[in-house]
Amino acid sequence: MAYRSTERVKARLSASRERIIAAALGIMAEHGYAGCSVAAVAERAGVATGSFYRHFPTKADLFAEVFRTASQREVDAVARAAALETSTAEQMAAVVETFSGRALQSPRLAYALLAEPVDPAVDAERLVFRRAYAELIAGYVAAGVASGELPPQDPELTATALVGALAEAMVGPLAAGVAGPETIPALITFIHRALGVSP
Amino acid sequence: MAYRSTERVKARLSASRERIIAAALGIMAEHGYAGCSVAAVAERAGVATGSFYRHFPTKADLFAEVFRTASQREVDAVARAAALETSTAEQMAAVVETFSGRALQSPRLAYALLAEPVDPAVDAERLVFRRAYAELIAGYVAAGVASGELPPQDPELTATALVGALAEAMVGPLAAGVAGPETIPALITFIHRALGVSP
DNA sequence: CCAAGGACTGAATGATGGTTCAATCCTTGG
DNA sequence: CCAAGGATTGAACCATCATTCAGTCCTTGG
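^ Those are the sequences you sent over. The predicted structure of the assembly is below.
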């Protein structure tokens, strides 16, 4: 026995893996999923295309992970912003502002995560993303109903519908590159009304 | 000059074209967009794959037309149902019931039209579909605002958000194959609240 | 320094499926 | 019935990438 991969090598492998993920995210943010060929990702990560397969069994596996990571980051940011508020109305306003603000900050990435045509296998990960948002929102809605701030309703259905509303309302502005200044306040008003927040 | 295509031939060509569109729609309804290779569509239409290209310059052109046609049929059905009602609240209830009812009747087709991964060129047609719904709804919302049945709001934004909410709320049930019996009434309640219909 | 064996390379492979085209069949006006 | 020329065929073509692999480079323990 003359060679046995050691810590140093393992660290380098792990660094390559991270670079590949970062490269995929970078290309997505610049050119969308469409620009993410394995060759392009590998080149940007500084590895040969063949080496890519030392780290991920298939391209779909990489992008499942990329979507999961990026989505989690978004959901976490939204959750963190909402957690600073106390009333359901304020929490939901924070959700909308954070979600929309971040999406408009990285429109190409947001479009890829939300709506760009992707592999069916990667698309499945998108459902997870949307469900994560829905569950976050459902928690706030349920709390609002329990406290009496909101009228009785099915928090799951409300949350799902609101996620759809948010995503749909952002697709237009994301394609255009900008949102009118009144879009986000109007969206907050809409969502408050949809929740039954008393005016 | 010895051959000049005549009415009879033109009619046959046009019939082939229609059969191709119908075949594409049929395969979409049975196996989704994923099952729609040019070869499969041509075979079902009873023409050779090569003949397909006498009728459409590319596959994307066919499906743009298929999506446009199918979408228009859906929008028309929804518009017809809503036109029978008088108040905005009833009109919107008709929209939700018709939209959801038809989607659940042909879940595979509805999924393909709404959410299945497709060519980017075909995906663009989907935006048209959603915008058509949004415009239909925006008309009703604007009328409701004008008559005072609804509080002041931007009909376009409300309509866009509602289309997103409707679509998102249907994707789960479409994947599952059925919707719980309370889903549609709950969705109507949600949408009434979102519009500001007074209870 | 050495031999073992894992890591790395990138050109070749292969699968998919849209698109083309040379050959053939039909239709038409004469 | 004929010649002209459009319609039809479906097998071949081709472009695109994801994936593989034989050869090479590096790292390791001795």
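Residues 120-147 of chain A form the longest helix (28 residues). The mean pLDDT of chain A is 94.

Shout if you want it in another format.
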